[in-house]
Specification:
The chain is mainly α. It contains eight helices and two strands. Among the domains are: 40 residues, no CATH class; 64 residues, Endolytic murein transglycosylase (Dna Ligase, domain 1, 2-Layer Sandwich).
């Protein structure tokens, strides 16, 4: 009995040594990758759903993104400054033109403003979301937020991950509206 157990253990040891030699010396993927041209690797990476861009393209995209955000910020600041000055000028004209003002008019203006706010809150937005292959849940959340279906993209994305909907998202087009809850939206895109 001892002889057969020893023979079996020696056989396992020799098989292990042979496998280690094969892995470390014969089948080295780094050496295989070194011999492969970059042009041959690009289609393999793209088939996995990734995009390959050159360093120049990456730099130009990075620079354009930063420039766009800065330009948008400057434009919004200029617009808000211009609208503030226009509002002040309009108020000054109203004050100069109307000497007799009653207390009822400001109340009416306040009511109109609150009605406009209520109308904005009651607006229901509809959007057809198209989910494509390889689209992450964060992109879905961003698209819904941009189209006023949800208020907070990060909150919805976290909901999808917490409730494990992010792994069940289906490809296709889905009709969604802003009066739907997170649950209803998640159920619609995972059917």
């Amino acid at each position: 009995m001892k002889h057969s157990v020893r023979s079996f253990s020696v056989g396992l040891f020799i098989a292990g040594v042979i496998m280690l030699i094969g892995i470390y010396f014969l089948d080295n993927p780094e050496k295989q990758a070194e011999g492969t041209a970059v042009e041959d690797l690009i289609p393999l990476v793209e088939n996995e759903g990734y995009r390959v861009i050159t360093e120049e393209e990456y730099i130009s995209l990075s620079v354009n993104d930063g420039t766009t955000e800065t330009a948008e910020t400057n434009t919004s600041e200029d617009t808000s400054e211009a609208s503030d000055s226009e509002n002040k000028a309009a108020e000054n004209e109203l004050n100069e033109n109307e000497e007799d003002t009653s207390d009822e008019e400001p109340d009416n203006e306040k009511e109109d403003t609150s009605e406009d706010d209520d109308n904005k809150q009651n607006d229901v937005y509809n959007y057809t979301l198209t989910i494509e292959s390889g689209m992450p849940s964060s992109s879905i959340s961003d698209a819904l937020a941009e189209n006023n279906i949800i208020d907070d993209a990060e909150e919805f994305n976290q909901y999808l991950q917490d409730e494990e909907y992010s792994l069940k998202v289906q490809l296709g087009s889905f009709d969604l509206s802003s009066d739907m809850s997170f649950y209803e939206i998640a159920e619609a895109i995972t059917k």
